[in-house]
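Thread: DinB family protein, structure

OP (GT): Posting the sequence first so everyone is looking at the same thing. Length is 172 residues per the record. Can we get the structure tokens written out before standup tomorrow? I want them in the notebook alongside the other entries.
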Amino acid sequence: MPLSDVEPRLDSADPAAQFAAYLDYYRAAVARKLEGLTDAQLTTSVLPSGWTPAELLVHLVHVERRWFVWGFLGEQVDDPWGDHADNDPEGPWQVPDGVTAAALVDALQAGGERTRAVLVGHDLADRAAVGGRFTADPPTLLWICFHVLQEYARHTGHLDVARELADGATGE
């Protein structure tokens, strides 16, 4: 039985299809949790750590691209750390000037399409390319899938808390 009405109904013996379905689920959950927030709520932190819902969204857009495109495929990408101040992987998250939440949700979905193409076109045992994110000892696509899935799960939970603090909304 699904944990919620929106949890993926796919129960496949194909792990890549299962990963794709759950990544789609979390992308949609993030978008749902942002619906109805005002611009001020999207750009104001309610947490001691200081991040905003918009910053979390831009972070997730970059995370997926960093791991599947720059990481696994080894393709060069513009600003792989563009979600961090000064492109510093240790810097705080930031939202580029003039970018809307709607544009970021669109970018999140477009990144998902690219990820699905990677999952359809490669075996989960394949190792990431050397030359993009990795210079040696690249992980398998399976490891990358688990890593990105846990990033989405963790950050979607963070967004649950931020949303409840911002306006009291709870739920899926």
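GT: Both are above now. Quick notes for whoever picks this up: The mean pLDDT is 92. The chain is about 55% helix and 0% strand.
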